[in-house]
Amino acid sequence: MTHDTERNNSKYDQDQIEMMKERCILVDENDNCIGSADKWDCHRITEQSEGKLHRAFSVFLFDEQGRLLLQQRSAEKITFPNHYTNTCCSHPLNFKEELETKDQLGVRNAAKRKLNHELGIPLDQINIDQFKYLTRIHYKSASDDKWVEHEIDYILFLKAKVDLNINPNEVRSYKYVSENDLKQLFKDSETASLSEPILITPWFKIIYNNFLSSWWSNLDKIESLKADDKIHKMI
Question: Number of structural domains, the chain?
Answer without folding.
Answer: 1
